[in-house]
């Protein structure tokens, strides 16, 4: 009787062991499936393929917009497009480009910017840049500003910009037009020539 009881216990333990080993791979597969469902198309357009560098903006001057700069690196295999930028610290944020038209320099508002695979797009003085209007709080040198960059494929990405009194000038064939020191209240950027307008430093 004792021998039979021991045999039944051994069989029960063996069955339990086989059941656990059978559940192992299935549980792992289910976990991976859940992870895939949670990330959606992240494998096709991973957020990690987009890198943001040198995010900074000029300290706002009362009554005038600030200028923001950054670099966007696309390390993925697919092109992406920056569609919009918002910030809780500003009423609105626009993307602008400084272009040449018949030897004259002109600022043009952009609806979006494409970043090709393996490419880097720079928002820098004298070229593409951000214009930030209507600050919602006082900002000083060293502060940080949160902005949400929305991409067509990667989706929204929150980036912190550093506020600086002075932005290092970079060589550019377009020159460095300091829009943050200009009065934009009555300006029509779409057809305006900014070539000779570089307000003095304050």
What does this structure look like?
- Residues 173-202 are annotated as: Disordered.
- Residues 1-26 form the signal peptide.
- Pfam families: PCuAC (PF04314).
- By secondary structure, the chain is an alpha+beta fold.
- It is 19% helix and 38% strand.
- It has one helix at 2-39, and strands at residues 50-58, 66-74, 80-86, 90-101, 104-110, 113-115, 120-123, 129-135, 144-151, 155-164.
- A hairpin with a 2-residue loop joins strand 4 (90-101) and strand 5.
Helix content: 10-25%
Per CATH, the class of the largest domain reads Mainly Beta
CATH architecture of the largest domain, by name, is: Sandwich
Q: In percent, how much strand structure appears in the residues?
A: 35-45%
Tally of individual domains:
2
The total of helices stands at 1
Class by SSE composition:
alpha+beta
Main sheet makeup: 10 strands, mixed
CATH superfamily of the largest domain: PCu(A)C copper chaperone
Based on DSSP secondary structure assignment, what is the total number of beta strands?
Answer: 10
Query: What fold name stands as the CATH topology of the largest domain?
Result: Immunoglobulin-like
Radius of gyration: 28 Å
Alpha-carbon distance between the termini?
101 Å
The H-and-E topology, N to C, reads as: HEEEEEEEEEE
Return residue spans where pLDDT drops below 50 for at least 5 consecutive residues. Answer: 2-45, 171-202
Mean pLDDT: 73
**Envelope shape:** globular
Could you write a compact summary of the structure shown?
The protein has 202 residues and is an alpha+beta fold. It is 19% helix and 38% strand.
